[in-house]
Specification:
By secondary structure, the protein is α+β, with helices and mostly antiparallel strands. It has six helices and 13 strands. The strands form three sheets. Strands 5-6-2-1-13-12 form a six-stranded mixed β-sheet, with helices on one face. Helix 4 packs antiparallel against helix 6. It is globular and about 45 Å long.
Length: about 260
Amino acid sequence: MSKEIPFRPLPRFLSLASYNIHRCFGTDGRYVPERTAEVIHSLDADVIGLQEVDMRLLVDGRTQLDYLAETLRMHAVPGPNIKGRRGKFGNALLSRWPVRMVRHTDLSVRHFEPRGAIDCDVDVGGLSLRVVVTHLGLNAAERRLQVRRLSAVLEGMSEGAPLVVMGDFNEWKPTRGALRALDRRLGPSRMPRTFPSRMPLLPLDRIWVWPIGGLQRLSVYTTSLSRITSDHLPLRAEVAWDERRPPQDRRVVDAIAKV
């Protein structure tokens, strides 16, 4: 990665969240988008990556994403992976801060469900935060190819430029899974259990923060409401980069990843 751009801290504390909303269908089988909006509001996050947003389903005449964005008063970025006459389905991003640039990466693998990633620049007080939101496949070989493509997209990122990668990665192996390439690049991800929501056993949802010293806290949002609103629990991160500390050296990250 290039080291030409010096580290510039973001001007304030940030909160992030990743949430597979399961098309707004709860574990009780009910379609209640209002519950989803309430859980997201309770997260109190500045930037939220969503998965399984079904824009084919309406809420008071609006798509799910439009409903959530308008209800929560946030900027919305759609990232549909499936498109058809009935509408769109896939990833999305909600942000309290303006989104200045949006890129989409196709992570689809032949013979499997279409997948992709949103890659955008969020303007946080005049400084740029790069945010990547994705949802990887269910097959191990499929995920390895998708991580390889995602790593290639991140190849040109600057050493000190703030970056967040988050989503539902469908990976539960702690050391041998497809996510090792991302761990080597961004530091080993923490793996709190988020699935299934009623009794979480698997760490399917992840958030990476670069530079890695910026991640102050990572927690699973567990309430009686979040346990029934989706089959995944939301993952929430608190981020604050210290301007007195330069980003950790690439060799330090590599050493940690090998432990």
